[in-house]
């Protein structure tokens, strides 16, 4: 049966950041079974050694009152013992494994070696995804300009980009190399970070007994700005008291902006199974839920464009995907992200009409006209602390662009950084002259014309 959101989609205009998941009051509210939690406790003590009750609960990101009954059960079963404590109560008891508990922990490790924050149920993850979907994100020209302020774009570009962001659908950015396709895609990601609010992701979720890790510190940026739960000191007190706190199994992050290029292959779009530990890592595109997934240099991946697009043709249409575990069982997950395809190649040479129809927005970025080129050139000069020289630009057009070389926006940066390097090498103040641009362009451009 298809999973459906149990809460309405957030009204982004009035509340750009979704409500944080609340800490569970009971094991049932946590969505975990007693058998799972007892195994998790045994594994944790087996790997980390004897633990204080509060440290054990905090490591698993659960309130102690949720863990208490499982600890009592394991103690009654003579799997753990109390080595000490003080008058604070069970939260300060020091728990260690008995010989029986060690054997059971070893058996549990063979079944699954995952230790760390307790997973959330798949259903809770799905519900949270629908609360923080990219679809319907508010976007207006004035709010869109700031993330694009470092780029020189024609006004019609904003007319094309804004509706694409609001739709939350896929975007195809195409055009000759060196004209800012990747920079534009990253600017869209910056807009999502600044205007889209934060989102919440779990460390891991559990589906039919299978643990899938989601949080990736190399891709997800934690948003540590103050929230309605207060500062860190207040949050620590609430965690200890287990009242009014956020569910610590979730992290508040900036909307992810994940970039992949020629290294992308089909295997990266499937669950990655750790055969020794018996749990899974979510695929790379799954980690982009709630944010942006940029496929740069589309058409140059390790797999063919047709294979890649066939893999995504239904998720793009239906906004959900399926993940398959090692026994062949599939479970449905949200596909809630803005996918951006960026390519230097002709889209008609890469995909057929059926797929182009599913990509709602196509944005062509062509070579800059001279007026735009001069603005980009001046902008780079300012960034490098260099004077602007109209003679330098005039030389480039006389020598190259008027003779068949197509101007690229990236030429401005590349040429001026060469000029900067020449000046530094000669121990001269960084400045721009016609002679210096002649020298820089001779090594950068001439050999290719």
Automatic annotation (TrEMBL):
<dbReference type="GO" id="GO:0003677">
    <property type="term" value="F:DNA binding"/>
</dbReference>
<dbReference type="InterPro" id="IPR003593">
    <property type="entry name" value="AAA+_ATPase"/>
</dbReference>
<feature type="region of interest" description="Disordered">
    <location>
        <begin position="1"/>
        <end position="24"/>
    </location>
</feature>
<protein>
    <submittedName>
        <fullName>Putative ATPase with chaperone activity, associated with Flp pilus assembly</fullName>
    </submittedName>
</protein>
<dbReference type="InterPro" id="IPR036390">
    <property type="entry name" value="WH_DNA-bd_sf"/>
</dbReference>
<dbReference type="InterPro" id="IPR027417">
    <property type="entry name" value="P-loop_NTPase"/>
</dbReference>
<keyword id="KW-0238">DNA-binding</keyword>
<feature type="domain" description="AAA+ ATPase">
    <location>
        <begin position="167"/>
        <end position="369"/>
    </location>
</feature>
């Amino acid at each position: 049966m298809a999973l459906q959101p149990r809460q309405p989609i957030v009204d982004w205009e009035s509340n750009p950041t979704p409500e944080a998941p609340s800490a569970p009051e009971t094991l049932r509210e946590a969505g975990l079974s007693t058998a799972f939690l007892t195994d998790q406790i045994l594994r944790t003590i087996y790997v980390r050694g004897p633990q204080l009750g509060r440290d054990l609960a905090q490591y698993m990101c659960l309130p102690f009152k949720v863990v208490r009954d499982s600890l009592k059960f394991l103690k009654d079963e003579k799997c753990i013992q109390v080595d000490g404590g003080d008058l604070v109560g069970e939260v300060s008891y020091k728990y260690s494994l008995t010989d029986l508990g060690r054997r059971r922990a070893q058996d549990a490790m063979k079944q699954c070696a995952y230790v760390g924050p307790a997973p959330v149920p798949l259903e809770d993850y799905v519900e949270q995804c629908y609360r923080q979907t990219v679809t319907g994100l508010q976007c207006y020209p004035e709010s869109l300009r700031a993330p694009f302020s470092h780029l020189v774009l024609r006004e019609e570009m904003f007319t094309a980009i804004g509706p694409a962001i609001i739709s939350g659908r896929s975007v195809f950015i195409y055009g000759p190399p060196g004209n800012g396709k990747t920079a534009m895609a990253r600017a869209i990601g910056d807009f999502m970070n600044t205007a889209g609010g934060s989102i919440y992701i779990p460390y891991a979720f559990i589906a039919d007994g299978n643990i899938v890790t989601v949080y990736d510190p190399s891709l997800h940026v934690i948003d540590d700005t103050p929230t309605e739960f207060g500062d860190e000191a207040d949050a620590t007190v609430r965690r200890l008291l287990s009242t009014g706190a956020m569910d610590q199994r979730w992290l508040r992050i900036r909307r992810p902006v994940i970039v992949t290029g020629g290294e992308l292959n089909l295997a990266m779009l499937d669950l990655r199974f750790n055969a020794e530990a018996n749990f899974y890592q979510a695929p790379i595109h799954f980690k982009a839920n709630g944010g942006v997934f940029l496929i740069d240099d589309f058409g140059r991946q390790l797999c063919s464009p047709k294979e890649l697009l066939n893999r995504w043709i239904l998720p793009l249409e239906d906004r959900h995907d399926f993940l398959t575990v090692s026994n062949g069982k599939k479970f449905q997950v949200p596909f809630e992200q803005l996918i951006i395809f960026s390519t230097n190649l002709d889209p008609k040479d890469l995909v057929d009409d059926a797929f182009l129809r599913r990509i709602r927005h196509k944005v062509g970025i062509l070579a800059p006209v001279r007026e735009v080129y001069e603005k980009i050139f001046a902008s780079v000069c300012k960034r490098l602390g260099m004077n602007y020289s109209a003679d330098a630009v005039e030389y480039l057009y006389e020598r190259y662009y008027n003779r068949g070389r197509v101007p690229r926006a990236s030429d401005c940066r590349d040429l001026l950084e060469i000029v900067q390097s020449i000046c530094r090498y000669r121990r001269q103040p960084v400045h721009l002259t016609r002679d210096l641009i002649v020298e820089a362009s001779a090594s950068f451009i001439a050999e290719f014309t």
